[in-house]
Inverse folding.
């Protein structure tokens, strides 16, 4: 069996620990401690995060994507959106973008250079607070979901205050979509209490009919 090779380490701001970029043959992994945050072989649920949303908001939407990861959500969004769409990608860790343009450039496939895309380095909560009704959809793939917090500051994204900020940033009928490695009844209730109409969608990690299940919350702002 091919051994994992440690390619690089990135420090997460605000004492958020470290990310390690690993490679084994053609397979890439981003890890924090012993936890694998993402793997290049498993892209199905990250792609579904984009396609499920765009089916609801249309091809000319204004999207905010929180967390670049390995770019699966961004690439799926670009493939489904039309030329008038606008996307902001907020990535907290600058090295993640460097990896996308370096050792994982073949996975990025030029998506960061698409004229519809603007990359913002920093906490996605700042982009959420940039303006009222600024987005038709906000897609969050941060910290393995609302129950997987490895960085305390991410808690505010999923708190009542954070959800109120997200709703204010959405247009009427806009969608807050949240990816998670597992379910959370408490988070579903929190979304409902924040005034969203909520749908919980289980999706396969690999995009097929077998394998691990992830969860996507689709929370619609009634207006």
């Amino acid at each position: 069996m091919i051994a994992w090779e440690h390619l690089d380490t990135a420090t997460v701001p605000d004492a958020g620990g470290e990310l390690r970029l690993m490679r084994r043959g053609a397979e890439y992994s981003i890890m924090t401690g012993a936890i694998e945050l993402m793997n290049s072989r498993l892209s199905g649920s990250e792609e579904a995060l984009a396609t499920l949303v765009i089916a609801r908001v249309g091809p000319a939407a204004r999207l905010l994507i929180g967390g670049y990861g390995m770019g699966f959500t961004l690439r799926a969004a670009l493939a489904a959106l039309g030329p008038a769409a606008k996307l902001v990608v907020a990535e907290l860790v600058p090295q993640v973008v460097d990896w996308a343009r370096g050792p994982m450039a073949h996975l990025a496939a030029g998506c960061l250079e698409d004229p519809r895309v603007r990359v913002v380095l920093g906490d996605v909560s700042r982009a959420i607070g940039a303006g009222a009704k600024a987005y038709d959809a906000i897609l969050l793939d941060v910290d393995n979901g609302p129950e997987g917090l490895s960085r305390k500051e991410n808690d505010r994204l999923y708190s009542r205050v954070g959800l109120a900020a997200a709703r204010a940033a959405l247009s009427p009928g806009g969608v807050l979509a949240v990816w998670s490695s597992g379910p959370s009844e408490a988070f579903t209730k929190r979304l409902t209490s924040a005034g969203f109409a909520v749908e919980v969608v289980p999706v396969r990690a690999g995009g097929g009919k077998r394998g691990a299940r992830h969860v996507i919350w689709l929370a619609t702002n009634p207006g």
Remarks:
- The chain is about 30% helix and 35% strand.
- The chain has a mean pLDDT of 92.
- The helical segments are 44-57, 72-80, 94-101, 105-108, 124-128, 155-158, 160-169, 185-193.
